[in-house]
Design brief:
This protein is mainly alpha-helical. The chain has three domains: 12-101, Fumarase/aspartase (N-terminal domain) (Fumarase C, Chain B, domain 1); 108-205 and 219-352, Fumarase/aspartase (Central domain) (Fumarase C, Chain A, domain 2, Up-down Bundle), CATH 1.20.200; 361-390, no CATH class. The chain has helices at 12-19, 22-25, 30-46, 52-70, 83-95, 97-101, 108-145, 164-188, 209-215, 225-260, 288-311, 326-348, 365-374, 379-387; strands spanning 149-154, 157-163, 191-192, 220-221, 268-269, 351-352. It has a two-stranded antiparallel ribbon. A two-stranded parallel sheet has the order 3-4. A two-stranded antiparallel ribbon has the order 5-6. Helix 3 (30-46) packs antiparallel against helix 4, helix 7 (108-145) packs parallel to helix 10 and helix 10 (225-260) packs antiparallel against helix 11. The longest helix has 38 residues, at 108-145. The termini are far apart. The model has no long low-confidence stretch (mean pLDDT 93).
Length: 391
């Protein structure tokens, strides 16, 4: 039974169109909705709207659903529309009247938001762990080959000498800033939307939303119920922007490695196990994994723009358009997590060629000019004197 069903029929084509792929996407939200539903049930008990027995039944039911979900055995059917309906229907079938009471004082609107926030909190924590793994792989590479000199580039031309350590350290620093951005998002999003209901609060019933917020580990509950709905247009795109920033870091790293590993450069060698071949050219060793990571930045950026575009020009309060941003959110997080994992593995397997990396003599031109400056010559004169060699 649908949560909004009042006994009327719905055109099957309309039903299929409005449900979309939510019932498939929501598989990853089941455990989070169970956690939120348990916190809500405890708040209902605190408000005197559930008996101790009803709370115990609901708690046992939610635990059973979570166990089924962990084994991939909790089924969400198209006619359920989403995980929230499937969970309530399962509870009602098992717990009877108690199952019918679990939705008291909430809307599917704040229910969806709460499950998403719990999911995002978990995903952001995992992103931080994988960023740390990437930074760790970069630091390990720097310890092994960091002192090796190599050319630095501006305008895709040799510029000044640098080192492998400075080059790879750039990406460790970027990963650290990406992690700081994740921390900032976790802090901003540390507020529970549960209790905002459809976006206008819960009349008559005295349900303590701060209590349920604490039970779920949130710092506080969102006070303004209309803003709770607005956050779906702000927080989800913000998470996707973090994914874009992470993918930009990885795009730059992958682009450098594609170039530096070409035979023409030969600065670095990719392990054979990281390269694919050609169906026609026996000699080929292709950096497909790097090309895909490089390209996935643009894919994630497109998903972010999709969500931002969907969020615009909507009046305050819930609008069904928001449903269409769920898929892009999951796609961005999945891509960023997988790409971080693969690039940490790639980084750990890099081997630089000390002979091919030796900077050409002309890269020391700036250093030569500064030696003249140190001896007393004005910089502009030193610049021109050294520059005469490269006309």
């Amino acid at each position: 039974m649908k949560l909004w069903d009042k006994g009327g029929g719905l055109n099957k084509d309309i039903e299929s169109f409005t449900v979309g792929d939510d019932y498939l996407l929501d598989r990853r939200l089941v455990k989070h909705d169970c956690a939120a539903s348990l916190a809500h049930a405890k708040a209902l008990r605190k408000a005197g709207l559930l008996t101790a027995k009803e709370l115990a039944d609901i708690s046992a039911g939610l635990k059973a659903i979570a166990a089924l979900d962990a084994k991939g055995k909790f089924v969400i059917k198209r006619e359920d529309e989403d995980c929230h309906t499937a969970i309530e229907n399962w509870l009602t079938a098992r717990c009877g009247e108690a199952g019918k009471k679990v939705h008291t004082g909430r809307s599917r609107n704040d229910q969806v938001l709460t499950a998403l926030r719990l999911y995002e909190r978990e995903a952001l924590t995992e992103l931080k762990a994988r960023l740390a793994a990437l930074a760790g792989a970069a630091q390990d590479l720097s310890k092994k080959q960091g002192r090796l000199p190599m050319p630095g580039y501006t305008h895709t031309r040799r510029a000044m000498p640098t080192t492998v350590g400075t080059w790879i350290g750039c990406f460790a620093a970027a990963a650290a800033d990406d992690a700081r951005l994740a921390d900032a998002l976790i802090k901003i999003m540390d507020q529970s939307p549960l209790g905002s209901a459809a976006g206008f609060g819960v009349p008559v019933l005295n349900i303590d939303k701060s209590y349920s917020a604490k039970l779920m580990g949130f710092d506080r509950a969102i006070e303004n119920p209309i803003y709770a709905q607005f956050t779906r247009s702000k927080f989800e795109p913000a998470v996707m922007h973090l994914c874009s920033q992470i993918m930009l870091t990885l795009n730059k790293l992958a682009t450098d490695l594609v170039l530096f590993s070409t035979p023409e450069f030969g600065f670095v060698t990719l392990p054979g196990a990281f390269c694919t071949g050609s169906s026609i050219m026996p000699q080929k060793k292709n950096p497909d994994v790097l090309e895909l990571v490089r390209g996935k930045y643009h894919v994630v950026l497109g998903e972010e723009f999709k969500a931002l575009s969907l969020a615009g020009n909507l009046i305050s309060g819930y609008n069904r358009d928001a449903q269409l941003a769920k898929g892009p959110l999951f796609a961005c997080l999945d891509t960023a997590l997988a790409s971080l994992n693969i690039m940490a593995t790639v980084t750990a397997g890099l081997k630089f060629d000390s002979e091919r990396c030796v900077p050409a003599p002309e890269l020391f031109a700036t250093e030569e000019a500064y030696r003249l400056v140190k001896s007393g010559m004005p910089f502009r004169d030193a610049y021109r004197k050294v520059g005469e060699k490269f006309r």
